[in-house]
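dumping these here so i dont lose them again. two proteins, back to back, each one seq then structure tokens. dont judge the mess
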Amino acid sequence: MIYTCPEFNNVSMLTIFCMEIEKQVVILNDGLLALENQAVARSESAAKTLDSLMRSAHSIKGAARIVGLDTAVEVAHVLEDCFVAIKKGQITLDSQHVDVLLKGIDWFTELGQVKNDAHSEWLIEQTDYTSKLLDQMSALCLAPSENLDAKPSPKEETELKPLKKAASALNKNPQNHKPQNHNPQNHNPQNLKSQNHKLQNHNNIDHLDSSSPEENTHIDSGDEDANRVVKVNADNLNRLMALAGESLVEVNGLQPFVDVMQHLKQQQQSLIHLLNRLQKEAMLPTGEQKRLDSARKIALDCHALLSDRVGELDQFSQRFAQLSDNLYQEVIASHMLPFSNGTQGFSRMVRDLARSQGKQVKLEIVGQNTQIDREILDKLEAPLTHILRNAIAHGIEPPAQRQQLGKPEIGTIRLEARHRAGMLFITVTDDGCGIDLEQLRASVIEKNLTSPSLAAQLSEAELMEFLFLPGFSTAEQVTEIAGRGVGLDIAKSMVQEVGGLLQALNTPGAGLSFHFQLPLTLSVIRALVVEISGEPYAFSLTHIDQVRLVSREEIIVSENCPYFVVDGENVGLVKAQQVLQLPESQLTHETAFPVIIIKNQDSSYGIIVDKLLGERELVVRPLDKRFGKIQDVSAAALTEDGWPLLIIDVADLVCSIEQMASGGMLLLSEDRKDARSLQQQRVLVVDDSLTVREMERQLLQNHGYQVDVAVNGMEGWNTVRTGGYDLVISDIDMPRMNGIELVQHIKDHPQLKQIPVIIVSYKDRKADQLAGLNAGADYYLTKSSFQDDSLITAVKDLIG
């Protein structure tokens, strides 16, 4: 029976061979590094590792033979024999030996990366290097062990003869090891199935192996990989995710039908009871009695039929819901990969970089089976690589220095991934020297990032944030692996791109740790759904610090800006409608307002929403690219009842709030009636005369109003846009902007035009009064009104 692989129907044998190499070199790299860290090469764990290494080398050898790459067969054969010699105790493994064997693995890595089936040409170009590599590995296998006599036993001599013969043949006649042209029919699609069958089962083709039967006794066929990988287009996978989410929504549409049918069943039952009662109590003629009896039987038959169908519909609804949920969960799982898929090259990279720096470093990876969205996993590679390189370059001390500090000579970097509270947490920690905060403070000043006086006041957390700035580095000189200041900037940018958080925690003298907080997947998010202006919106839980009800008594207004206090920190308060530029809605909470406290880096704001609708798991639906980037919105989703909603881009929202604040546009906007229930009536007095300002302020305060003042028209215009004022009282003749212009600006503004304005001026001409009223003022008073109740009467008339 011929084994077929449909997904390989249009793939060349050399491409499949490269896929085999890609899989096996991961096992070889990880196994060899693990073997280097194991104290005794003949321990039980080391023996299992060696078995795995021998199987991988043997697998590559068999695959290379099938595609006709004889030089690759020979390199794999020598590599396999080196593992055999280690297992038999003929080699006492040390770092130098590992370096040589890693060169052999790298040789296969490069071979597997050759494109367009140009492997034969590549092997010809690498003939000289391949010859030297085989010499080094052969010498490694033939080197006497420190624990054995220099002269091998007759049995060992017999076992090593094939290896000696191969090495000597290569040295005497290198051209023999130029690759032979493999049979072109290997690339014939008609022969692909049988060739692929051989490739998949080459572990069992022992008769093609040139090694002795005794050497082959250690080779196992290996377990069949139960999780066969099939490459799927990302767009297809996203569409499948969208369809699965829609099916989950659609299944909820069955429940109303079930409810209606149940209600109809109850109504029919009531009808039957009435007919039974009528039949018993009514004195009807015989003919009418028979017709009533027939009607009762028909009702009973209908009820029985309806009962059966309602039960079937209910069961179908439950099965459909379970099926849709299973489909949904499976599609989500198809987006996930184990963390180990993204960390395969880290151990090797850490080892090589540490040796190049004269350091000894061990990488511990915890949570390799933690499931991560494949898109996030791809994006994590570069940030984690930079952080690991920085840990080696800046953090881990040389062995001699570590010994003086009482630390183990071998430094440790711990990379951990775990799920917690619906989020993905990744931590990179080293036990090096950590960050010298005073040196960091000096670097910040030296690079003119802040003034010395301000730098002296920065907390540790604020100082650590400078590490993530583009181009910032504490290295004294630029080296191959550090000093350019791009690594942590890349990490920060990646985290912000996926809507996560990154924080660095320092323990001087004991190490540095980086904490990533990321969404579990970019396809599905856990979000808080709220109502704003009658429409649903979603905030990702990643950026929500707290959700709470804020009473009117907790709201404080300072410098025209509302805020409230949370854990000793002032949190600015703003209505969601104002930032999102949505219609105002009536507040339904008389005593408290639902507030979402969002955090983005160092900024915190409280967003007032209309209602909290609850926490939901939402399938992210990207917006049409033709819309471009929509301000304050990142994506869309569907609620469980099929209604569309927008997902808020919190980072963008914070930027919008800060821009409004810097431009004097941020205010807690309410209509006048709702504002009165929130706080005292607020009045802004605009006059360039100190005496007049104070007189008006005291007069209004004595009548229970909250009063702010501005010294000219321009300041008055900036101030009125920063706080929810109920009334503006203005003079006319003022520098920078006169009162008429101020009134016109207020009345032309879509959000401020409802604020009433009173002009109080020494000018009492009819023309001046008409100019003020035509500009939009609600009252025009002269300053003689201070002597009577005219001003207070006008104020009460406008705002109560």
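---- next one ----
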Amino acid sequence: MSTDPHQPLRDDVRLLGSLLGDTLRALEGEALFETVEGVRALSKAAREGNAAAFARLDTTLRTLPVEHAVPVARAFAHFLTLANIAEQHHRVRRRHDYLRTPDAPPQRASFDDTFRRLLAAGVTPDELAQTVHGLRIELVLTAHPTEVVRRTLRQRQRRIAELLAYRDRRDLTVPQRELAEQALRREITAAWMTDEVRRERPTPLDEARSGLVVFEQTLWDAVPRHLRALDRSLRAACGRGLPADAAPIRFGSWMGGDRDGNPTVTPEVTERACLLARWMAAHLYAEEVAALRAELSMREGNAELRDRTGGAYEPYRALLGAVHRRLRATRACVERLLRGDADECAGDDAAPLWNADELRAPLELCRRSLIDTGAEVVADGRLLDLLRRLACFGLTLVRLDLRQEASRHTEALDAVSRALGEGSYAAFDEGDRHAFLLRHLTTDAHAVTRALDGSFDPAVRDVIDTFRTAARIRPDALGAYVISMATEPSDVLAVELLQAAAGVRPPLRVVPLFETVGDLATAGATVSRLLDLPWYRGRIGDQQEVMIGYSDSAKDGGRLAAAWALYTAQEDVVAACRQRGVRITLFHGRGGTVGRGGGPTHLAIQSQPPGSVEGALRVTEQGEMIDAKFGLPGVALRTLELYTTAVMEATLRPPTEPRPAWRRRMQQLVDASRDAYRRLVYETPDFVAYFRAATPEPELGTLAIGSRPARRARGTGVESLRAIPWVFAWTQVRLMLPAWLGLRAALQEAESAGAHEDVLAMYREWPLFHSTIDLIEMVLAKASPDIAAEYEKRLVPERLRPLGAALHVELADAMQAVRRLTGHARLLEHNPVLRRSIDVRNPYVDPINLVQAEILSRLRQAHGDARLHDALLITVNGIAAGMRNTG
């Protein structure tokens, strides 16, 4: 038997590849199969440095008719997807190997490993237990316009993963193994025969429904399993476990509530998204209560239960039967509301459950009775899991955040102030805005309430109706109100006044989002001025939440500048809150890719400034990363564990402050990096023209891969483009520019100043700098200048090509500078598993890129060709699968 822990992964990939090959032969014929094999051989040879093979590969794919080239690209895309499934399953398998081996050390960053290290570092068992009990982690699921895979195919991919897990069973008979292989063959065949192209752009409600699927398929079961594992490890380490109502991790959502630049998210959409979540919750609870009722067949019950059920023969079943009827009534009521019936639930036999306490009370009564009658082991089974689900999910599964841009509130209040005869709010300076807002908040909100009934243009009416809808929605369904592009305290007060005037009771907590490098630089001062307002302090008490945006800051100044701006902004906000006795929760708007703040969860949290994670954290999980992190039960469990242990470590053993000399050096690096980045992206006259020619950015907005427009506003410049398609477009052509541009200038500036040893020390000893460089190194390892050059050759006008050539030189210099800093002869040589994963994928991604470049060339010459349009989306899917994230 092989001792290589990764041999099972290679075996799985080989099996899936073989089954895909059989499928191609059976459905498309031997000719296509031979073409695919020939392309694969050429691509592998090209990756090994054979220039003639690359030229033949290019010629082969360029001369293929579209109807032949697309199936070839599809074949490689399907293989990459299958390889991704195998890798995800292998992560779960490796975790099982750790847990199955009694004498093996605990897996890094697991509960057992983390608790052991914290106790060894001097944390007392009481401190450890109290920290776990007080954790407040919220993962906020968001939809984004780069989620390219259809839900139908996601479901097939999950079934393939489940079959791989089944094949790992050591007790399988030969017939069972053969049946499993046949089932895999069926799923791969069905996936090949399924159209991966969305014919219609998904609506926000489609995205909300898709977001709820992850709760039904994985999180509903993963959360209680996660809490059982945490409880078991905590008991072993501290002698006491979790209380039944512990909820260290909860979930939020932006799907159906994020209206920033998305006109399709209307007040009605928000209301329906909340109802969909409530329906799913009622459905899941009804099924679980039915199963619990079947399980609790005991006749013994304590006096409280017997009194409550009138001496019923089977008291638990009698009590839970009533609960089950109320949950079914809730589900039926929500269905009527979704159909638009205004009478809500008149005529139901049982009253719907709207309040979580109404469900919690009978469950806790059952638990007390079981414990009182000696059945504690039963009480700690399905019933405890259900109580823990209730603590985590409530009756809505998620709380929906609302998000809107600050300027939209300004427009609404400008219309209101004019209607009140008080002048133009938009023309007020910040002091006058404070006076207007605080006067109406403290003495005359009713005047604004009356003014909201006026006649306004549709954009203003949409803002007002959003607040009035929030006032109608049951409070447990809503989370925070997030203000994009917040810059001043008045942005927060504006939302507070609009809530008060619209009757939002209790008001949602208002969260300013600081996104650009400039706004991050002043975030601490803005929060200080906000907290110094007596009315506002009375409103929030001692709790403040602030969101920081990773995507726009990176688009604004480059990845290195964004990392430092985000770090110092957190420091400033924490200091402002600490000086005023306010507890801060930082909300991290991280994307999936490095260019948008993505990266390994544990490392990212450990790299935050001291004091910025004190048992509390909110973070977005965006688009494609939801499936990557929560799509499989085992992966979901590991994701939840990593979030929990990282927040615990950052709370109990925060990183040390960076040395003053490092701060100065970092600022010098950032200045050089940002200047180089902005000089190219914002100050080079031809850059935007080159970007739009060399990448599929102009076509992305026409693809039906998300409900939200690619741009915040009209225009063709980088300023108006959202950060997500900005990163996505560069990822598709494998140049990856947003993640590395400017780094070469920074590191070369340090070398020319004789500061190379300083930077080396920063890399070795400072978690923020180390993690930032390592993530950029990973992106550089995925970049492929030869592939990017093929796009330029086909798509970029001759006059713009010198700009591309300069970028290629910049990329090569960045790679060399990172290798000098890290001491790696080859990028990622310290991470052989990831290095091999990239090397294995490259020969499969390269042909898809070459096909895409040719399709883009033909598409731009034949406007409106639906066949080419579909072919482009197929290549987008394939490249996204190969790059492991879609931007």
